[in-house]
Design a protein that fits this description.
The complex is a heterotrimer of chains A (about 325), B (about 140) and C (about 525). Chain A is α/β, with parallel strands linked by helices and about 325 residues long. Chain A contains 11 helices and 9 strands. In chain A, strands 1, 2, 3, 4, 5, 6, 7, 8 and 9 form a 9-stranded mixed beta sheet that branches. In chain C, strands 1-2 form a two-stranded antiparallel ribbon. Classes of the chains: A alpha/beta (about 325), B mainly alpha (about 140), C mainly alpha (about 525). Chains A and C meet through helix 2, strand 2, helix 3, strand 6 and helix 7 of A and helix 3, helix 6, helix 16 and helix 21 of C.
């Protein structure tokens, strides 16, 4: 009698424990979840895979440990081609991506590959762009900087952490366009190996302005070594960054978000696609992820499924148009 | 003589490099120096030093016999096969075969080579995969 | 005084049982990863990041583990350089030049122990430099704009002439080859691909670890295949005797000035972001050679000072590289770039305020560096005997193992068969170059520094609107150019002319007699 009751109790407990999993698992559960980081260990994509993999498991959203595989080369192009050509039907696979992926797709930097060859899952946050100057610069607002560039493009060397045509460069061009600079090719952009290096050269006096992500500039903003003229976000950010004006409120309607997210193979079944979208959406809503976002300086950007697909499509279109205009692609 | 041939190859290399540099497709967005200048300077240095070998060659090195060259060539082929087949057959098998081959060709008897190959493969697997957690190629058998 | 009090607090943070255990594990793993060809300090640190996160370590313990790996790898790289003539990672490249000849003379034990001590000296003083000078050093880093960096890299290449005394034209060719290889990939200043032949795998350029492992490790395998069983093999085989394990006090004293000079040079190279540990060990070696052996009689032939200089230099540079990382948030090397990513993910923002905002983390980290460094010295000296056992393994077994480890090291990081093929190509190329007596060091130096050298030239000229005059536009740039030209380039030509004149004078003299 007591034994049976005990057994029943245990079964019930087990059922309850399994409930969140089985609710998800109606149609599909990955038997061997895998995340491809299209770069060497230590980079941004690697972190995206590992952080998300760990948090998904902590939250019980995937049944087993996420295996992270590094597949570097071609700025993510090698991994993209591998997914399209060899693993198109893999339901257990997700791949880390960011604005850089969209930029390269838009500029045909993955030869023969386009964004509709894969299915875009969801974003997990964004890092908004900033435009900054050294603390002793006489320029105090974004329109002032743009006026100076308009009057004499050679007088402002602006540095950033991405290659020419990369996201840091495009952000400043978007702002320049909005500010009415007609030939944005005149903007004197100097590419550095990373945002930190560019900020250092701003402090050293080699550059007059800096374009990058807020997280890269944070340390220097706190110390007062640089002045952020504008954040390229739709509205002011919260917390310690509430004082930074947006470009929009200064009359320059430019938004530049370096988002992080995932795509999946193009041949993934709808059940699996829904499973992953749902899992990442649940993760995004969790407290643990809020903590991770805060730690990593990520701002909210909550898009999933069709919404995310449309968002990536739109940004690829915009980047294509801009890149054509400045002549990076024909 | 070898240095003269080397000088010739060097010149050819410099020429190809310079040619490839001139056909770099420049975008409308070019910096003041451009993507071609530095490669062209490099090609010039390469060409000048190659000319020097042509004019003043060093004494002849000792080249291996044809048999030995074939030996090296075969080892290269085995390595290429290893690189290509690694993702297909999986790490353990590919590595055991390749290292057994190299051990054998370096003068170990065949049976011993096989043992060494297997040990090397398993040893590396344990250190890299199990201890350091790197993802090595897993073939159809999962290792 | 404040500084010392903070440091004492740091030791309180660092000296817990868990942290010491982590430092020990980190030092050990780091040494091994440094010694294995294909795994360098940056990959070593990156590989252990998930471990640190999985263990749920807090910021200080995680950093202690990872920096111990970093310092350990800097120590470990020398082991395979000395014993096998294969640099375990790129900063250990220069240690081959005199370390391997020493091992062949039966002084492997001495070379290992001496290089261990030199590593300790370099790292120890560099850590003090970090403690005492970090804020001031940041100002030094800010003196270097693109023009000054370009002059610095030119200086590095100018010193190449002093490295291999045999045939300068071959050095020049090798450097050009390396620089040419560095040009492969997407050009950051215009975004156009160069020399990629449409191959996506080449867009990111050639990873220098692939180059180094191919050129050194695989070409060594081919050399062994070529000489198998012949009389030459007997001659080429390093002596089995290990020699004394503890270097004599006299030898250490003899090398002390070298170590100190190299520490200073390496540290400065480390502080400059974009220069890094490889440049530190390179400059230390070539300047030291210039200072103590200008006629080129002993360096390259097993001079202990040629082992002490690059090891003190690269370990000092490793410490120096932490200055811009912590104080500016700018990584000076691949490894510090990875450490920076770790700091950010631990919610620590490196930058000017780090020392005041997170003093416990910074000083705990610095104290851990001291502890790790002592631990490495204590671990490395007794282990010399163990390391040298490697030489007892016959090459016919050792070489395939080395080759396989090289393959796995590269594949495990990039997951790409293409990289393996490139590595094999480098192996064959390296073998041919060795046969033709072309030095390999300039090739690696070219691939390592080529991009930085070019982009700094282009940044400088672009910032100044196409005016090349900017390259000599500051006193610092002029000073660097002067050292390069007067110190290294002129002597090559003038030296030749002088030699001929003297010969002529001698002949004329004998005629008149």
């Amino acid at each position: 009698m007591t034994l049976t009751a005990l057994r029943r109790g245990l079964t019930a407990a087990a059922l309850i424990a399994c409930a969140p999993l089985s609710a998800l698992a109606q149609d599909f559960t990955p038997s061997n979840p895998e995340c491809i980081a299209p770069a060497n260990p230590g980079g941004g994509w690697d972190f995206t895979c590992r952080q998300v993999g760990k948090s998904l498991q902590d939250e019980g959203l995937i049944p087993s440990t996420m295996q992270v595989v590094n597949l570097s080369g071609g700025g993510g192009g090698v991994a993209f081609a591998e997914v399209v050509n060899k693993r198109n039907d893999d339901n257990d696979l997700i791949v880390a991506a960011s604005s850089a992926t969209a930029t390269r797709l838009a500029q045909n930097a993955f030869p023969g590959n386009t964004m509709d060859q894969v299915r875009w899952l969801a974003s997990v946050g964004a890092d908004y762009g900033v435009i900054a100057v050294a603390k002793d610069s006489e320029i105090n607002t974004l329109p002032k900087l743009m006026d100076k560039m308009k009057a004499d493009p050679k007088s402002v060397a602006i540095g950033g952490g991405s290659a020419v045509g990369g996201w840091d460069h495009l952000k400043v061009l978007i702002a320049a366009q909005e500010a009415g600079i007609e030939d944005v090719r005149q903007v004197k952009y100097i590419a550095f190996a990373g945002g930190g290096e560019a900020v250092t050269q701003l402090l050293a006096g080699s550059l007059q302005a800096f374009t990058g992500d807020l997280s890269e500039a944070k340390g220097f903003v706190d110390s007062g070594d640089i002045k952020v003229l504008a954040v390229l976000a739709p509205e002011r950010l919260g917390g310690e960054f509430a004082d930074i004006p947006t470009a929009k409120e200064q009359g320059i309607d430019a938004i530049g978000a370096n988002w992080r997210g995932f795509y999946a193979p193009g041949g993934m079944s709808d059940a699996a696609y829904d499973y992953w979208v749902d899992a990442i959406a649940k993760l995004y809503a969790s407290d643990e992820w809020k903590q991770v976002m805060e730690t990593n300086g990520l701002a909210p950007l909550d898009l999933h499924g069709a919404e995310f697909q449309a968002f990536v499509q739109e940004s690829v279109n915009n980047i294509t148009a801009l890149s054509k205009e400045i002549g990076i692609i024909q | 003589m070898s240095d003269r041939i080397f000088g010739g190859i060097g010149l050819l290399l410099a020429a190809i490099f310079a040619w490839q540099a001139t056909i770099i497709q420049e975008s409308f967005l070019s910096d003041a120096v451009g993507p071609k200048t530095f490669p062209l300077v490099i090609a010039a240095v390469m060409a000048l030093s190659s000319l020097y070998f042509l004019v003043k060659p060093d004494p002849e090195p000792e080249w291996p016999t044809m048999g030995r060259l074939a030996e090296i060539g075969l080892a290269v082929l085995v390595m290429i096969a290893y690189a290509e087949l690694l993702p297909e057959v999986g790490f353990l098998i590919a590595t055991a075969v390749a290292s057994a081959y190299l051990t054998w060709r370096l003068g170990t008897n065949p049976l011993q080579s096989l043992v060494v190959g297997v040990c090397t493969s398993v040893g590396i697997y344990v250190v890299f995969k199990l201890v350091l957690g790197l993802s090595l190629a897993s073939g159809p058998l999962g290792f | 005084m404040d500084t010392l009090a903070s440091l004492a607090d740091g030791f309180v943070v660092a000296l817990t049982f868990q942290n010491i255990l982590l430092a020990l594990v980190g030092c050990f793993l780091g040494t091994i990863m440094g010694a294995l060809p294909g795994l360098g300090p940056s990959n070593g640190v990156a590989i252990l990041i998930p471990v640190a996160f999985t263990l749920g370590l807090g910021p200080t313990p995680a950093l202690i583990l990872l920096t111990s790996v970093y310092y350990g790898a800097m120590y470990g790289g020398r082991i395979s350089s000395i014993l096998l003539n294969i640099p375990g990672d790129e900063p250990a490249l220069m240690t081959c030049l005199d370390g391997y000849p020493m091992a062949k003379q039966g002084r492997a034990g001495e070379a290992l122990a001496l290089s261990g001590i030199a590593s300790f000296v370099g790292a120890f003083f560099a850590t003090w430099g970090l403690v005492l000078l970090a804020p001031q050093l940041v100002k030094v880093a800010l003196l270097f704009g693109p023009a000054e960096y370009f002059a610095l890299f030119t200086l590095a290449f100018a010193t190449l002439g002093g490295i291999s005394a045999t045939n300068q034209a071959k050095s020049a060719f090798a450097a050009a080859l390396g620089l040419g290889l560095a040009m492969i990939g997407v050009d950051t200043q215009t975004g156009v691909p160069r020399f990629t032949f449409g191959e996506v795998h080449l867009y990111d350029g050639i990873d220098f670890l692939v180059a180094i492992v191919g050129l050194f490790a695989l070409s060594e395998v081919f050399i062994f295949l070529e000489h198998r069983g012949s009389a030459e093999e007997e001659a080429a085989k390093p002596k089995i005797e290990i020699g004394r394990i503890v270097p004599s006090w006299g030898l250490i004293r003899y090398c002390t000035p070298t170590m100190l000079r190299s520490t200073v040079l390496g540290f400065i190279a480390g502080v400059l972001p974009g220069a890094g540990a490889s440049l530190g060990s390179f400059i230390s070696y070539s300047i030291e050679k210039k200072v103590v052996d200008s006629s080129g009689k002993t360096f390259g032939k097993g001079d202990p000072r040629g082992v002490a200089a690059p090891e003190a230099g690269n370990n000092a540079a490793a410490g120096g590289a932490l200055v811009p990382m912590l104080a500016l948030g700018v990584p000076g090397s691949g490894t510090t770039a990875v450490l920076l990513a770790v700091l950010l993910s631990l919610n620590i923002t490196p930058g000017p305020l780090l020392f005041s905002q997170n003093p416990d983390v910074v000083w705990g980290l610095i104290a851990a560096l001291f502890i790790g460094n002592l631990m490495l010295l204590a671990m490395n000296i007794p282990m010399v005997g163990l390391f040298t056992r490697v030489l007892m393994v016959p090459p016919r077994i050792l070489m395939p193992v080395v080759a396989m480890i090289s393959f796995v090291g590269i594949y495990g990081i990039s997951g790409s068969s293409f990289d393996l093929l490139v590595m094999i190509a480098f192996g064959v190329g390296g073998w041919a170059l060795r046969k033709l007596d072309v030095p390999l060091v300039p090739v690696i130096l070219g691939t390592l520094l080529g991009n930085e050298m070019e982009v700094n030239l282009r940044r400088a000229v672009t910032i100044d609107d196409g005016n090349y005059g900017i390259l000599v536009g500051s006193p610092l740039a002029i000073a660097l150019w002067t050292i390069a030209i007067v110190g290294f380039i002129l002597p090559i030509f003038v030296g030749g002319i002088l030699k001929r004149r003297m010969k002529q004078a001698h002949e004329e003299g004998s005629l008149t007699d």
